[in-house]
């Protein structure tokens, strides 16, 4: 989980817009240019490509994290159902001690393992939610306002469609 968070944050840092003031040449000599030495067009096109392809990468990672969470939840349900089978085997099989733990060691172990799998599933789901937020952000950043097709909204061409209702 920590590796995914680190990789995702590094990818998002590369997609974040950079300040053009960071690249200004602060030396002010007569006859020298104050423009950056590199082409900003290349940087912008690279950032646009990172955002455009990164949104699909983060969307795929969300799907993968959900699959991992489902797997952990399935393991938790399996352990829980085994615990329920033990509890149904006899009346005192799931008796609780003074400290709130199961008296039987195998029942307590199943309970703790079920909880551990549930905690892992919750972490995977939190990662998926963070990835969904990043995906949504990248989709919004990738919008190109004013660059859509000319026919939206559909221009009228003299054809009218209507419905008459008589009362």
Biggest beta-sheet profile: none
Structural class: mainly alpha
Give start-end ranges of low-pLDDT stretches. Answer: 15-29
Strand content: under 5%
Multimeric state: single chain
Helix content: 55-70%
The count of helical stretches stands at: 3
Q: What is the distance, rounded to the nearest whole angstrom, between the alpha carbons of the first and last residues?
A: 65 Å
Based on CA inertia axes, which overall geometry fits? elongated
The averaged pLDDT comes out at 78
Please tag this protein with its features:
mainly alpha, 167 residues, 3 helices, elongated
Structure description:
The protein is mainly alpha-helical and 167 residues long. The protein has helices at residues 2-15, 40-89, 105-141. It has a domain at 42-144. 60% of the residues lie in helices and 0% in strands. Helix 1 (2-15) runs antiparallel to helix 2 and helix 2 runs antiparallel to helix 3.
In short:
The protein has 167 residues and is mainly alpha-helical. The protein has three helices and no strands.
């Amino acid at each position: 989980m920590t590796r995914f968070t680190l990789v995702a944050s590094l990818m998002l840092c590369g997609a974040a817009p950079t300040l053009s003031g960071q690249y200004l040449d602060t030396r002010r000599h007569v006859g020298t240019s104050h423009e950056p030495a590199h082409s900003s067009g290349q940087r912008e096109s690279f950032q646009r490509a990172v955002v455009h392809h990164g949104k699909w990468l983060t969307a795929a990672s969300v799907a993968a994290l959900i699959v991992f969470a489902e797997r952990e939840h399935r393991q938790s349900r399996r352990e829980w159902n085994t615990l329920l089978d033990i509890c149904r085997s006899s009346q005192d099989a799931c008796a609780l001690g003074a400290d709130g733990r199961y008296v039987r060691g195998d029942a307590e172990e199943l309970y703790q393992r079920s909880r551990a799998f549930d905690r892992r599933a919750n972490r995977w789901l939190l990662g998926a939610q963070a990835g969904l937020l990043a995906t949504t952000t990248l989709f919004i950043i990738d919008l190109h306002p004013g660059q859509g097709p000319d026919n939206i909204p559909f221009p009228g061409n003299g054809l009218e469609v209507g419905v008459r209702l008589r009362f």
